[in-house]
Amino acid sequence: MIQIKELSKIYHSGAGEVKALDNISLHVKKGEIYGIIGFSGAGKSTLIRCINMLEKPTSGSIKVNGQEITTLDEQALRTARKKIGMIFQHFNLLSSRTVFGNVAFPLEISGVPKDQIKTKVNNLLELVGLADKAKAYPSQLSGGQKQRVGIARALANDPAVLLCDEATSALDPATTHSILELLKDINRQLDLTILMITHEMKVISEICDSVAVIEKGKIIEEGLVIDVFTQPKHPTTRRFVQTIINTDVPDNVLERVLEKGQGQIVRVSFIGDSTAEPVISTLVKHFNVDVNILYGSIDQIQDTPFGMLIIECLGSPANCQKAVDYLVKQGLRIEVLKHVS
Ligand SMILES: Nc1ncnc2c1ncn2[C@@H]1O[C@H](COP(=O)(O)OP(=O)(O)OP(=O)(O)O)[C@@H](O)[C@H]1O
User: Fold this and answer.
1) Going by CA atoms, what residue is nearest to atom 7 of ligand 1?
2) What is the CATH number of domain 2-242?
3) What ipTM was reported for this prediction?
4) What are residue 180's phi and psi, to 5 degrees?
5) Hey, whose CA ends up nearest to atom 14 of ligand 1?
6) pTM of the predicted structure, to 2 decimals
């Protein structure tokens, strides 16, 4: 649905050149929710602004719904933009218009007849749960309600894709959750492709199917959210994952293994239903090792449970290795964090 190839954007300013996007390629499939995460200055806004051509790329190709948009003239671009909905961190509502008037605005610009506008807007307000607020003004709404208006307005022209620019960053956690739930519902009901940029891993874990991590204008890691969360490769990705899942073992705990002599500290992760085998007791019974659980957690990534145990496995190097091999055979993801022989 969105296909980006070798996209670069260089800004020229008094201070010199800034390469905000550096040869970015990515593919957002139809019907998927795709998250792009990065720290401040990574290039997220530039990327999303290039996708609707608010910013002209320096080089590269962007296809939305099969149409190359980087080469369109103004007129064709205006038409193409109608099929690219966008919501913003600060909602960008028209304060002098009611909720109804805000949602109707893009339809009025498209020249849709009044009676059709009325039906469409009422349906959209129903969809976002604001049917009773049609006559209210933005100043009379909460942040979450304002974003619901933003979503309804973005959907007015039946877009092929919805771009979300830090759509929940100005909202409290409970409201963030309800807006993310709404976006997920809309994604499912309308089979709408959604691209979100964010600096919050929580947003990615709650609703995204795939994620790309952007740093200094480059995609440094990309994949299904479940894979990136359970096996982050790049240090920056690990930092993001650690903001919601504690995957680090404190240094002093690691050091304790050294004091005890031989052993390993192992991170054991599982996705979905936990293994049917009583793995920990099997380790102790059959591999002549002692096992101490240092840390355990269960999180949810979308609807899939993701569990993690950090265990201390004490015994001879050969026995510890056999124990680890056994865990791998059980289909668990294993990472040896500390090995002492
Ligand atoms: N109009 C501009 N002129 C010059 N440099 C720019 C311009 N817009 C962005 N940049 C630079 O491009 C880089 C990427 O900026 P961008 O706003 O895309 O990052 P971001 O990831 O969205 O950050 P934030 O989360 O803080 O908004 C930064 O170094 C920024 O200073």
Assistant:
1) 11
2) 3.40.50.300
3) 0.96
4) -65, -40
5) 43
6) 0.84
